[in-house]
Design a protein that fits this description.
The complex is a heterodimer of chains A (about 475) and B (about 400). By secondary structure, chain A is of the alpha+beta class. Chain A has three domains: about 280 residues, no CATH class; about 110 residues, no CATH class; about 60 residues, Arc Repressor Mutant, subunit A. In chain A, about 40% of the residues lie in helices and about 20% in strands. Chain B has a single domain, classed as Alpha-Beta Complex (Amidase signature (AS) enzymes), CATH 3.90.1300.10. Chain B contains 13 helices and 13 strands. In chain B, a hairpin with a 2-residue loop joins strand 12 and strand 13. In chain B, helix 4 packs antiparallel against helix 13, helix 7 crosses helix 9 and helix 7 packs across helix 10. The radius of gyration of chain B is 20 Å and the shape is globular. The chains are: A alpha+beta (about 475), B alpha/beta (about 400). Chains A and B meet through strand 15 of A and helix 7 of B. The complex binds zinc ion. The site of zinc ion has 7 residues of chain A, from loops.
Chain lengths: ~475, ~400
């Protein structure tokens, strides 16, 4: 029998707000020390009352717009109770009854993934185990940091679809300024089951908690698929609905202790937080502040004359598109910039195993300018770029010190051209008999001789003169 | 045990319940759990008083987290004389040791205490006095109020502490509230039959006497039936316990407050610290609150109680559409004897029938001359006007 995977995702993303969800603590994205960004409110001290961060509401609404959701203009906060030392008030404020966004969708390839809801909630702190004293220490820097949880419908049918969705989600959230989506800041709970192909019923579901690496998510899904199919086909085990965790060392999932999952969270509306009413005017204000989506960005690039495929690659990554926009803004031709980013920069990134493009736009713009105005050759330009990637050199100084400037003596070019022509009578004969390719070979020899420092236009002109004598 | 848990300033004229925070002074809330807890900030109401030049005398003894009848469950001991219970703040005011006191009315304790001591306590309209700095239990209904010897003093202190506070999300928008006293002649007051019938003869006599005074002032007093007093009582019990359970869950022995001396793991740390730190009534309330919030009972208990809250509010407001105020007993008896702590949960529930309506609706209420008055939202001035006029009769 053939089986199909049925997967739903709950994705937690940190919002890019300056302060926490219910207090004015800031700096939590780059704390210097544990418990650096805390106050009585986010430490769960008695007497403090929560005050909702308006910006977090706006960012959640933006996420809703991006994922084609219906925005609940009346939305409430609820308390979820459980005891854990990283949760100082022993309850988490979340949205259980009236989430801020519902019923959305996102396209991945030719498939549509339904979005059940997006809700706001606060993050918990972090436990640090101190082996020296065999105690656990608690760091509340992250408590009450605003998160959104994006809950998909069980519409994924493969691990690849999940990865495509997460990549798209990440780039879209970054584009809209909703989340930085920094490494590990996007956490997923993966709900997975298997059923005979064509069946409408759902199989027994396993939930794999708290995954953040795409490759681990993929591996965990593949592992679960095999486990579920084995159980159905060969009765290796009886499937039960349970929560599991991925063990990256053992490369498999394990059931979590029942105690951690069978909790009754005792949800109820937070009486300290009045329902939030997002009136039409506010909604429109948020809509108007939406930046271009990746699709819109890509369209904008094609309108600048960038081929569609390249435009899509540029638009899919915030760092690439930001760099592109900045360099173009510095006056460089869009086509030229696209080619330098997609070919040369990405080549360097691959060579140096860098994930994100982090180049000074002014330096890249200067390199492109030097090449486009023939002050240095393209190979020389590539050389500078590599040096910028490797050791962030100063472009002009580097060209100067390495003699890359084209201002090479024309007489040196001429003597070189004459020498090469004299040394290659066969090529000259070929050229004269109509084989124009022979000229290209000679040109290459001259370029190599001059180590890429000669102005190609000058070389070509002098070579033509010499050949046609 | 004296009335003060901690003195601050011997010349101070305002007492503050130990459930309200004052920066740098321990705030115990009458609990062993918070015996050594010193807050980092002051309640908004305290700051307003200090800014206006009032000095705080000290922190008054309260029942554990303010959940009981008259403070009898305090870890530091009950205030009783010859086996008769009394509230600490009301006693201090009655003796003239302080000018007034701030108390949190969570389940009627300061209203009851004032009624028994024969002083005034006003629980203002919910949202008019900031709850910032209150050791919270039942956020949806608890409110800081003022215990004072007379209505004029209650008005003076209330005018200082009331007003919008952006630190409290439920704080009402107005900058100032109008406490201007008005002539009560021609006012109409509804005497709630169902509550009157539940009170002892001594309390009934007090109500009759008060009604007679009102009539002497030209106020009409009529018997009115309000058929939701039991529903209000039960629904408030559910909401109050559930919210208390949630709010007290922060006291887990991890960050501050009492921590058990020995424990093998985190679960044992929680269980032992909370078992040792909380008294009987608090534990009973937490267990009850956990139960009504559980998944299987949520709809039938908590959700239903929220719906009852709306119905009660509508019905009481319907009465207040025809009457300026409601007259009712504040408690069942004229005095309370010390009782077995194991009976406290039932005892508090029984008594709350008299105080639950203002708690669950957020309407302003006042204990004065041993009775209770209730008015519509923002009509705190009507309560103060009536109380002052009756007090004036004897002067
Ligand atoms: Zn904070």
């Amino acid at each position: 029998m053939k089986y199909e995977l049925v997967i739903g995702l709950e994705t937690h993303v940190e919002l890019s707000t300056a302060s926490k969800l219910f207090c004015s603590c800031g700096g939590h994205s780059s704390p210097k020390e544990p418990n650096d960004c805390v106050c009585p409110a986010c430490c769960g001290m008695p007497g403090m009352l929560p005050v909702t961060n308006k910006h977090a509401i706006e960012l959640a609404v933006k996420a809703g717009f991006m994922l084609n959701c219906k925005i609940n203009q009346y939305t409430t906060f609820d308390k979820k109770s459980y005891y854990y030392p990283d949760l100082p008030a022993s309850y988490q404020t979340t949205q259980w009854f009236n989430p801020i966004c519902v019923d959305g969708s996102v396209e991945i390839g030719d498939r549509t993934i339904g979005i059940k809801q997006i809700h706001l909630e606060e993050d918990a702190g972090k436990l640090v185990h101190d082996d020296a004293t065999n105690t656990s220490l608690v760091d509340y820097n992250r408590t009450s940091v605003p998160l959104i949880e994006i809950v998909s419908r069980p519409d994924f049918r493969s691990a690849d679809e999940v990865i495509t969705y997460l990549k798209k989600l990440k780039s879209s959230l970054q584009f809209a300024g909703i989340s930085e989506c920094e490494e590990g800041a996007m956490r997923c709970d993966v709900n997975i089951s298997v059923r005979p192909e064509g069946s409408e019923e759902f199989g027994v579901r396993a939930e794999i908690k708290n995954m953040s690496s795409l490759s681990e998510i993929k591996d965990a899904i593949e592992f679960e698929k095999v486990r579920h199919v084995d159980a159905l086909e060969r009765h290796t085990e009886v499937l039960v609905q349970e929560t599991r965790r991925w063990d990256d060392v053992k490369r498999r999932t394990f059931p979590m202790r029942n105690k951690e999952t069978a909790a009754d969270y005792r949800y109820f509306p937070d009486p300290n937080l009045m329902p939030i009413v997002i009136d039409d005017a506010w909604l429109e204000e948020i809509r108007a502040s939406m930046p271009a989506t990746a699709e819109e960005q890509s369209l904008r690039y094609t309108e600048m004359g960038i081929p569609e495929k390249e435009a899509m690659v540029l638009a899919s990554d915030r760092k690439l598109s930001d760099t592109f926009d900045e360099v173009v803004a510095l006056g460089r031709a869009p086509k030229s910039v696209a080619s330098w980013i997609l070919t040369e920069c990405m080549g360097n990134m691959k060579r140096l195993e860098i994930d994100e493009l982090n180049i000074d736009a002014a330096k890249l713009a200067r390199i492109i300018e030097l090449v486009d105005t023939n002050e240095i050759t393209r190979p020389a330009g590539k050389k500078v770029l590599s040096a910028v990637f490797e050791s962030d050199v100063d472009v002009d100084k580097y060209c100067e010190e390495n003699g890359l400037n084209v201002k090479v003596d024309e007489s040196l070019i001429l003597t070189t051209v004459q020498r090469i022509v004299a040394e290659n009578p066969d090529a000259v004969a070929n050229y004269k008999s109509g084989k124009t390719k022979a000229m290209q070979a000679l040109f290459g020899l001259i370029m190599r001789e001059l180590k890429g420092t000669g102005d190609p236009v000058v070389i070509r002109t002098l070579l033509e003169q010499e050949l046609n004598k | 045990m004296g009335y003060f848990v901690n003195s601050i300033n011997p010349s101070g004229k305002i007492a503050v319940d130990d459930t309200i925070l004052i920066k740098g002074t321990p705030a115990t809330a009458g609990s062993k759990m918070l015996e050594n807890f010193t807050p980092l900030f002051s309640a908004e109401a305290v700051e307003r008083l200090e800014k206006a030049g009032y000095e705080i005398a000290g922190k008054t003894n309260v029942g554990e987290f303010g959940l009981d009848l008259l403070g009898e469950t305090s870890f530091f001991g009950a205030n009783e004389e010859d086996g008769v219970l009394a509230g600490a703040a009301a006693s201090l005011v009655k003796k003239g040791e302080v000018k007034a006191a701030l108390s949190v009315d969570l389940n009627g304790a300061p209203r009851r205490a004032a009624a028994l001591a024969g002083v005034d306590f006003i629980k203002p309209t919910y949202g008019t006095v900031s709850r910032y700095g209150v050791i919270a239990c039942a956020c949806s209904g608890e409110q800081i109020g003022v215990t004072a010897p007379d209505a004029e003093t209650a008005k003076e202190i209330l005018s200082v502490i009331a007003g919008h506070d952006s630190k409290d999300g439920t704080s009402l928008p107005a900058e100032k509230y109008d406490y201007a006293l008005t002539d009560v002649k021609g006012m109409k007051v509804a005497l709630i039959k169902e509550l009157y019938d539940l009170a002892s003869d001594a309390v009934k006599t007090g109500i009759d006497k008060y009604a007679a005074s009102l009539k002497a002032l030209g106020v009409t007093v009529e018997d009115v039936s309000l058929d939701i007093v039991k529903e209000a009582q039960t629904a408030w019990q559910i909401l109050m316990s559930a919210e208390t359970t949630n709010n007290l869950s922060r006291f887990d022995g991890v960050k501050y407050g009492h921590r058990a001396a020995e424990y093998k793991n985190i679960d044992e740390l929680y269980v032992k610290s909370r078992t040792e730190g909380f008294g009987f009534l608090t534990k009973a309330t937490i267990i009850y609150g956990s139960d009504v919030l559980s998944k299987s009972k949520y709809d039938a208990c908590y959700d239903k109680s929220m719906r009852i809250r709306r119905v009660v509010t509508e019905k009481v407001k319907a009465v207040l559409a025809s009457y300026d105020a409601i007259l009712a007993p504040a408690c069942s008896q004229a005095e309370y004897k010390a009782y077995d702590v194991l009976d406290s949960f039932e005892k508090v529930f029984e008594e709350s029938v008299f105080t639950a309506i203002p708690s669950i609706t957020g309407l302003p209420a006042m204990a004065t001359k041993g009775v209770q008055l209730i008015a519509d939202s923002y009509k705190d001035n009507v309560l103060l006007s009536i109380a002052k006029s009756v007090e004036g009769l004897e002067a």
